[in-house]
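Purpose: get a first structural picture of the assembly so the mutagenesis plan has something to point at.
Setup: four entries, given in the order below. No constraints added.
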Amino acid sequence: MPRADFAFSHRLRVRWAEVDRQGIVFNGNYLLYFDVGITEYWRALGFPYPDGILEYGTDLFVKKAALEYHAPAVYDDELDVLVRLARIGRSSLRFLLELHRADTPLVSGELIYVNADPATRSAVPVPGFLREAMQRFERIAPEAA
Amino acid sequence: MPRADFAFSHRLRVRWAEVDRQGIVFNGNYLLYFDVGITEYWRALGFPYPDGILEYGTDLFVKKAALEYHAPAVYDDELDVLVRLARIGRSSLRFLLELHRADTPLVSGELIYVNADPATRSAVPVPGFLREAMQRFERIAPEAA
Amino acid sequence: MPRADFAFSHRLRVRWAEVDRQGIVFNGNYLLYFDVGITEYWRALGFPYPDGILEYGTDLFVKKAALEYHAPAVYDDELDVLVRLARIGRSSLRFLLELHRADTPLVSGELIYVNADPATRSAVPVPGFLREAMQRFERIAPEAA
Amino acid sequence: MPRADFAFSHRLRVRWAEVDRQGIVFNGNYLLYFDVGITEYWRALGFPYPDGILEYGTDLFVKKAALEYHAPAVYDDELDVLVRLARIGRSSLRFLLELHRADTPLVSGELIYVNADPATRSAVPVPGFLREAMQRFERIAPEAA
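Result (structure tokens, whole complex):
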């Protein structure tokens, strides 16, 4: 997707310890970058994870992750983690993510979170205030969300 | 899938540093466990990665990864990484993986690798000897592979 | 130190993701291996960390770490983490550790832990039962401990 | 040491995956932060690691590391990695490092590198141009270096 389709982006730099013997980022470390992107997304939204969400009695757990590797990131690359909330379900959130080096997409993927009771980890509806904040941030029309 | 559907399994133990503040394994670390499982799969097959493959002028790069999180693994868990080669394409390999604690599946997923020229990283056909070794190991009938 | 000077040893294998672009284990990952060694030491002692210690109202925090790198470990190496409790202070424990590939010491180091109240993290005396168990395990004469 | 004693500082933020079940950064991850600090030190010096050094036929390997843990860093902390070159030996470099949250030092330590031939990994003298650049950057009088 073009960069303009993403409401949010966060820049990071590839660390020495994240690169493997092939000279490229180890495939699992992209989920580390996605996680940093999601963290900064929540901060930008005004609900820094986890305290900004836990105080409303709700927490988020990853349910699914998918990644497609187009081209490798290498040591010292400056990368943009692009984050877009694609769907707000009754108790789930679906994020699309892309990792770009300048205008080259290297990795694309998605993360599906379930909104859950922190103690029981069973799904509960996404709180209304969070739903509205995300719709505003993403400029999603309420009926389409 | 039942454990019996997997030709290969490797046991590991969750380390302190792999567990996060929620007391569960960080979502990206399951790709670390999958990678260990694939490494041991190649060893069991008789072609330890990477030297056992590179010497034939071919290398493997992850093209896609997908994970579904059913239940969390916690610190000190003994886990079995179950690995099954589900499809041998012209230049790609599709593995199914599951992570079990005793008989409870915690995470399931897949990894798709492309067989590539180590220098150019462009796809090349899976070598015949590798294809045959994998078919034997997985007891896949050649026509179905 | 010769291997015979260590009461305890634990074997592990270097993972792909732990090796960097120089083809050797990233310097910080040896503390990961030391931590695994200490974890298994506590298990062998009969007090699996952390529950076996926390139930007595005491916890352990690393106060100092030191490492000396003699020769690099590489991908797929089988390594022995050798652990020896060198000193039991009033509220501290000093461990000596070495990482060997066969009979070659690759890394040597020490970890100093403080025994602390889990809530306040302030130092408290090492409980007597732990002190005695460690002296027995290490065959340290009580007066020398 | 007071912050003013350090010629260089780099800010980073603690990631979710770097924090353990005690809610604090895993002790080995501070070497990851030290490594990021050293990387940025080389960049600021004008010799980005490793290409800016390798092109002169020399490389750097960690020989010793030491850490003292004063207080834990927690998730989402903004930390400054303070780096100071304390000694330039014939073929070795000794760095002092501190990790601060605002004006509170959390971890202090040192890293000793050996300057080596990239192929043989045997020690070779620190090149003159590097020695001079570092003396200028640190404002070390040549005779004291």
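The helical segments of chain A are 29-45, 51-54, 128-138.
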